[in-house]
Amino acid sequence: MRKRILIVQSLETLSPVIREALDNGTFDLRYLSGLADVVASVLEQKPDLVLFDISCWQRPMEQLLLELMDAQNARSTRKVILSDNAGPDDKVTALDSGADDFLLKPISPRELTVRIAATLRAQAVICPKEDTHILGRLSLYPDVMEVSIEAGAERKKLSPKEFELLDYLMGNPGRVFSREELLERVWVPWEIDAQRVVDVYICRLREKIEDDPSQPRRLLTRRGQGYILVDPTDSRD
Questions:
Q1: Of 106, 126, 146, which closes a domain?
Q2: Quick one: CA dihedral 185, 127, 116, 164, positive or negative?
Q3: How many CA within 13 A on the CB side of residue 207?
Q4: Terminal CA-to-CA distance of the chain, rounded, Å?
Q5: φ and ψ at 118, to 5 degrees?
Q6: How many structural domains does the chain have?
Q7: Model pTM?
Q8: Contact status, residue 184 vs residue 174, Cβ threshold 8 Å
Q9: Which domain range does residue 225 map to?
Q10: Are residue 119 and residue 178 in the same domain, yes or no?
């Protein structure tokens, strides 16, 4: 079955690079002009990926990405930003708001195709699962991308990237990972230049899995080495 891609564009005409990269029958393409109806369109059409073709990163895009993260039925949809220009922190802000990749023009049709394909492959990581992952008192619920820090405690929602990062760390408890390793394993390969993204997501996870995020006991920093997830009730750690 062809993957469905919703292309959200600010112009009436399709960008030539998008047309050459994607409009070849490989994907089920849908189109939308402007940002006003994006959330409703995603919920109705259930695309595998939304490609935003924008002139520049602006506050409405950040708010829209956050809305998509909050919409449970839309949280597994991948989101890629294709922009004409961006400031030094715009990419980090976009990724922190729920985007999976941020691409700057000019970009070749070949690179766009490869990066879209890589983002779609990563979608399998967040497909619903039936099991619950447990580390000490920490419980991760893959089917709804939620986490709780005590049995019966309130569950907290995770964004797709928060889920992928925590899922990977819980699969490797007690192992120290450098920023570079986490970027290579959790993010698509072309994001490895933005190491600050890892720090942003570590802080966000601590807000959700630590009793006191300023004094973490689960998700720890090993100075000069990286990050490690441990069970604070395990006397060996």
A1: 126
A2: negative
A3: 11
A4: 46
A5: -65, -40
A6: 2
A7: 0.68
A8: no
A9: 133-229
A10: no
